[in-house]
């Protein structure tokens, strides 16, 4: 692991625990056992660390969405893929998900523009999948924005809940979340 990656990994933990605004470069240096000035040999600023974390997650979601869109499958299968990728990242990198959700607004300039563009594109792609599902009668006709909000709000906050539920296996979580989000909780007659 490079020093830069060590700094980023340590920052992920501190940002998740305390919040981006509450962590100083001195705090970060102290945890890593560096002199604060030495950090700047590896990273230019705290905002650069935040950008690295947030944009890495945004690029992951963009990449995964591009794969899903390239598949010649129905909307249900595409939505299952979206949910699976969110669950995977929640389990494998919960700090990054928490930082993305809670601290993206502290990005500046080009970093903020790039993030907003990727987020908006992702949400529009997801909206298109939902619309396609409604048009092909795979998804019951409902307000598309409410469906989108319901999916994303559950998936974006999953890291908060799952953190306390290590008794669930990754496969059970993927299956149950997918079933509940896509099929609902009512028994169909």
From TrEMBL:
Residues of the HTH tetR-type domain: 1-61
Classification via InterPro entries: Homeodomain-like_sf, HTH-type_Tx_Regulator, HTH_TetR, KstR2_TetR_C, Tet_transcr_reg_TetR-rel_C_sf
The UniProt record lists the keyword DNA-binding: yes
PANTHER family listed in its UniProt record: ACREF/ENVCD OPERON REPRESSOR-RELATED (PTHR43479), ACREF_ENVCD OPERON REPRESSOR-RELATED (PTHR43479:SF11)
Pfam families for the chain: TetR_C_24, TetR_N
Keyword Cell cycle assigned: no
Coiled coil: none
DNA-binding region ranges: 24-43
An example Gene Ontology molecular-function term: DNA binding
Species whose genome carries this gene: Psychroflexus torquis (strain ATCC 700755 / CIP 106069 / ACAM 623)
Listed name of the protein: Transcriptional regulator, TetR family
Keywords: DNA-binding
